[in-house]
Amino acid sequence: MEKEKKEDIFKKSEEFLQLFQKTKEFMEELLNENARLRYKIATIETKGTSSDTEYYQKQLQELQHNVKKLINEKKELEEQYKEVEKENKDFATRYVEIEEQNNNLANLYVASYQLHSTLDFSEVLRIVMEIIINLVGAEVFSVMLFDEKANNLKIVANEGLEDHSNDIIELGEGIIGSVAKTGEPYYINQSLELSIDIDFLHPLACIPLKIKEHVIGVICIYKLFVQKEGFSAVDYELFNLLAGHAATAIFSAKLYTQSERKLSTIQGFLDLLTSAPT
């Protein structure tokens, strides 16, 4: 009985040792597997972090590139905006100039129509003076005509030059005489206007009145109105148009007046003959 008991205890011990051994092996396998899994996880995490870092670095580089690109585009747009803004200002300025030019040309057209609508010499001179005042903006000026017999220039109309109304300029004498002789206009720097007194022999501008190449007189401008700083590009065009139209109107009116006088003289002579006693 005792022997059986000992054998039973030995058997159980054996079984326990086997179970313990299996448990030990199982634990070792678990520990090895755990170590292997930890290593694998660590490897995966390490690789994953490196990959993420590269990914985010790549994304960051792309973002920086896009930001730089957007900044350059912004600069280009700002430069284009400045150019467009400048062009708009230029267009606005040019529009104002063209509008002013159109208005002046329209006014000159009306004035030219008025010039050619009458053959009365004094009326033509009055219209010429109105044009010089209203379109050119001259405050002090004179209109001089060339006397072919005397070979000199005499004032036939003026504004602000009453003291010089009887002055005479010989052909080729000074600025005015040279303009009448050559037919070339004369202009002076407008900034000098405020620093000099009115000098009859030295106008700010002297425009020849020409019919083709034949000079019949000149328009001399000595002073502009306060609100007018100086001659503009439109003024020079006005001078050219004014010179031609005014010259034609003045010359036609003068011829008509002379012919009227001659006709009146002849008519008076005929009336005298017909009324003479037989």
TrEMBL record:
SUPFAM superfamilies: GAF domain-like. Residues 120-260 form the GAF domain. InterPro entries: GAF, GAF-like_dom_sf. Pfam families: GAF_2. The keyword Repressor does not apply. Residues 27-101 form a coiled coil. Keywords: Coiled coil. This is Diguanylate phosphodiesterase.
